From TrEMBL:
InterPro entries: HET, HetReg/Transcr_Mod. Coiled coil: none annotated. It comes from the Eukaryota. The lineage of its organism: Eukaryota, Fungi, Dikarya, Ascomycota, Pezizomycotina. This is HET-domain-containing protein. Signal peptide: none annotated. Residues 48-130 form the Heterokaryon incompatibility domain.
C-alpha cells in the first residue's frame, strides 16, 4: 500500500482537516485503523470532537490507513484511535498529529494559531493519557 501524501491546504484560508475514524466491527490489534481525511471550512464545520493526548515516543510508530494509503503515527495515538472508534458509526475528530501536516512548516504556521478556535468549536474534547 502507498504512503499517504498530504494535499496542501490553501494558504491564507480558514480550512482545516478532520479525521473520519471508520467503524471496526471486529477490532484487531493486527489490522491498521481505517480512516479518511476530509477538508472543511472552520466557519462551517461538520460536528466533530477534538482529541488532546500525549504524543508518546516519536520512535515507537504504527501505521493507519488513510483512504488507500498508509500514514505513520505514534503508537500512543494508534492506541487512542483503537479505543475511541465506534463499532457501528464513523466519528469525526480533529487530531493535530494527523490533521496538520507535521512536515510542512508553512501549514503548521497557519494551522497552529487556529487550535484554540478548533477546540472551542468541537462538540467535545477527549483527553487521552495512554
Amino acid at each position: 500500500m502507498a504512503r499517504f501524501q498530504y494535499n496542501t491546504l490553501p494558504l491564507g484560508e480558514d480550512e482545516i482537516r478532520l479525521l473520519k475514524l471508520l467503524p471496526e466491527s471486529m477490532p484487531s490489534t493486527f489490522q491498521p485503523v481505517k480512516t479518511e481525511l476530509i477538508r472543511c471550512n472552520i466557519d462551517r464545520p461538520p460536528t466533530f470532537k477534538a482529541l488532546s493526548y500525549m504524543w508518546g515516543d516519536e520512535d515507537n510508530r504504527r501505521d493507519i490507513e488513510v483512504g488507500d494509503a498508509m500514514l505513520s503515527i505514534t503508537a500512543s495515538l494508534d492506541m487512542a484511535l483503537r479505543a475511541l472508534r465506534s463499532q457501528t458509526e464513523q466519528v469525526l475528530f480533529w487530531i493535530d498529529q494527523i490533521c496538520i501536516n507535521q512536515n510542512d512548516t508553512a501549514e503548521k504556521n497557519l494551522q497552529i494559531p487556529l487550535m484554540t478556535r478548533i477546540y472551542t468549536i468541537a462538540i467535545q474534547t477527549v483527553g487521552w493519557i495512554g
